[in-house]
Amino acid sequence: IDIPTVEFEEVTEFDFGQKFKNIHCVQLEATDESLLTEIKAIVAADSVLVVLDDFSHVYAFDRLTGRFLNSIGSSGEGPGEYFEATDICLTPDNGIAVLDNVRRSINFYDIDGRFVRKSKKIDDTDDFASFTAVGKTGFLICNNIFSGAEKGHDDGNKMYSFHNSDGTTYRFEDYSPLSVENEISFISTRPLAGMGDYVSFLKCLNDTLFRMDEDRDIQPVLVLKTKKPMPDVKEVSDYFRGHYDKLKMASYCRYTDTFEGFDKIYETDSMICLTPASWPPVEGTFWVDKKAGRGYVFPYMMELDSQYQQVLAGKRIIEVV
Q1: H or E, element range at 265
Q2: Could you tell me which residues are beta bridge partners of residue 145?
Q3: Which of 28-37, 49-58, 132-141 is least confident?
Q4: More confident residue, 291 or 243
Q5: Residue 245 carries which DSSP code?
Q6: What is the pLDDT of residue 76?
Q7: Predicted confidence band at 321 (pLDDT cuts at 50, 70, 90)?
Q8: pLDDT tens-digit series, residues 130-165
């Protein structure tokens, strides 16, 4: 079918004020109960920000002031607890869903941290559920497949499955990533995003953005035309000969002058943000204006982190351009 194509133009200035309103910086309050480590995910529920860190802590903060409000559940093996919080997302009723990697289940909480219910086991495989995004009738889940590799390794293959609200699970065999003689292959860290009634996701080494609606109908919606093309999947498979890894992939793409693909997806009503898989992301950050159908690449800035540290220290004010 004819799929709309978005080409990315390089820009150095972009008026975010026309795309996002009320931009502000929030410093999250650190207390004895909310000592955050590396932040893995943030979701916004009305006036509350919910944050997941590297140690499976899920905290709620006031969206305007950053004041700590409460914890969302806790790590453990008792009723209402999760063994390992791998990802979080917002439910249609403004509750919080916590994906438990080890137990392959989802815990549901209200915004005040009270346990509501636990999902059935996502499926009966030995896969580890790594990321989730909510649609109108259920959750699209990215599973780590450790066929031929030691379980617990970060660089597992990925396969999508859909966990329906009634507890049934559907696996998307057609959307499994590149597999080279059962060797592990790093694909992306957040390859899917929830937005309203649907979820968006990418295939491995594929320049097409897919979307699934409430009826589990999957359609390609955008071809992402980058300056460098994606590498050919068969050539990549032949090149690795059963020994796929991220560093070799980066070397291959530099040698063939191809694009490694995208690492993360974020989506709002008006914009889609995609980050490249390469590190450092020398290509920049990719943005799609959904209404205008245009793409932009913002240059990568190594000093961005230090700039924000200066903002938090009160030494600098950033003017959004």
Answers
A1: strand 262-267
A2: 157
A3: 132-141
A4: 291
A5: -
A6: 86
A7: very low
A8: 888 888 778 888 877 765 444 445 556 677 888 887
Q: Which of 311, 239, 253 is nearest to 283 (CA)?
A: 253
Neighbours of 169 (CB within 10 A): 20
Helix or strand run (H / E) with residue 132 = strand 128-134
Which token pair is 261?
């693909």
For residue 296, what are the CA distances in angstroms to 22, 38, 178? 22, 28, 28
Q: Which helix (H) or strand (E) holds 308?
A: helix 304-312
Tokens of 212: 């699934």
Say how many residues make up the chain. 321
C-alpha span between 235 and 29 (Å, rounded) = 50
Distance CA 260, CA 276 (A): 7
With vertex at residue 276, the alpha carbon angle to CA 295 and CA 56, rounded to the nearest 5 degrees, is: 120
b/e per residue 213-238 (b: at least 16 CB within 10 A): eeeeebeeebebebeeebbeeeebbe
Distance CA 157, CA 171 (A): 14
Range 177-184 average pLDDT = 60
Residue 162: per-residue pLDDT: 87
Q: Residues of the chain with pLDDT > 70: what percent?
A: 80
Q: Picking from 195-204, 225-234, 241-250, which range would have the lowest pLDDT averaged per residue?
A: 241-250
Q: Torsions phi, psi of 38, nearest 5?
A: -60, 130
- SS3 track for 3-59: CCEEEEEECCCCCHHHCCCCCCCCCCCCCCCCCCCCEEEEEEECCEEEEEECCCCEE
Q: Would you tell me how many other CB atoms lie within 10 Å of the CB of residue 66?
A: 14
Strand partners, 202: 209
